[in-house]
TrEMBL record:
Pfam family, one: Trans_reg_C
Organism: Streptosporangium lutulentum
Record SMART domains: BTAD, Trans_reg_C
Residues annotated as domain OmpR/PhoB-type: 1-105
Coiled-coil regions listed: none
Protein family according to the UniProt entry: Belongs to the AfsR/DnrI/RedD regulatory family.
InterPro entries associated with the record: AfsR-DnrI-RedD_regulator, BTAD, OmpR/PhoB-type_DNA-bd, Sig_transdc_resp-reg_C-effctor, TPR-like_helical_dom_sf, WH-like_DNA-bd_sf
Signal peptide (UniProt feature, chain positions): none
PROSITE patterns listed in its UniProt record: OMPR_PHOB
Protein name, entry field: DNA-binding SARP family transcriptional activator
Keyword entries, A-Z: DNA-binding
């Protein structure tokens, strides 16, 4: 049941795209580019986007700016939105040779994700590290998948890389904090999330190797080394860094010395 505090419009862009209006999912779009148009205007909501830019985004291989395709897509979006009984200020406006999407009562996960990251940065700048860590945790929780994971397009790839970058920075801080507290289970969790986003993040493989070495799990340390080596070799035609090799050699010799505490603390993530 919706309450007065429930957003009339809920949009998930991180992971697979989902739109709900007054608690009802929108599952059918009446034109091939209608959903893509809505997604682009949503990410740029409350901004007027010139029709030439929309043509460029939606039909990048076409030079025909006089085509009626955009009008068809706009009409389809309006029909989709018009099937829902709303009082939410959700409007697609035509103005000055462009279009603007307005949604006064909307919750968009991408916006909440970016807002959480900025609040974490602000708290960190004020040296309120505990509050910053809470916001970085919120940032990580909101990142449930890549931006519009099942969609393609140059603007989508650009936005996807931006969101991934913010997520990686938040995860790096959380990882460093876990290492500083010697919470190895949490540190491994954040490391694995980092690798899921960036499978070539060699520093994270090094961290996992050292954690397992600290725990006496030399086989697991070697497993991470081998995974790192295979990915670098197969996908990047590269070899592990000298430091990675040194860590493996040290662990293989079973040197009983603390390795993990030598890692950088949380502040290094910035």
């Amino acid at each position: 049941m919706l309450t007065d505090s429930t957003p009339a419009v809920t949009v998930h862009c991180l992971g697979n795209f989902r739109l709900e209006i007054n608690g009802r999912p929108v599952a059918h779009w009446r034109a091939g580019k209608a959903r893509a148009l809505f997604q682009y205007l949503l990410v740029n909501r409350d901004r007027l986007i010139h029709r030439d830019r929309l043509h460029e985004v939606l039909w990048p291989d076409s030079d025909d700016r006089s085509s009626s395709s955009l009008k068809v897509a706009v009409h389809a979006v309006r029909r989709v939105l018009g099937t829902y009984d709303r009082d939410d200020g959700f409007r697609l406006i035509h103005q000055d040779h462009g279009y603007m999407l307005q949604a006064q009562n909307a919750w968009v996960d991408l916006e909440e994700f970016e807002r959480a990251f900025q609040r974490a940065r602000d708290a960190w700048a004020l040296k309120d590290h505990q509050r910053a860590l809470e916001w970085f945790q919120t940032t990580a929780d909101l990142y449930t998948g890549d931006f519009l994971a099942s969609e393609t397009g140059d603007w989508i790839n650009e936005q996807r890389q931006w969101a991934q970058g913010l997520a990686l920075r938040a995860l790096a801080v959380l990882r460093a904090d876990s290492l500083e507290r010697e919470d190895w289970a949490a540190a491994m969790h954040w490391c694995r999330r980092i690798i899921a986003l960036d499978p070539y993040h060699e520093d994270t493989y090094q961290t996992l190797m050292m954690i397992h070495g600290e725990l006496g799990e030399l086989g697991r340390a070697r497993d991470w080394y081998e995974l790192c080596r295979r990915r670098l070799s197969k996908d990047l035609d590269a070899e592990p860094a000298e430091r990675t090799e040194r860590i493996l050699a040290s662990l293989t010799r079973r040197r009983n010395r603390p390795l993990v505490p030598a890692l950088a603390g949380p502040s290094s993530a910035f």
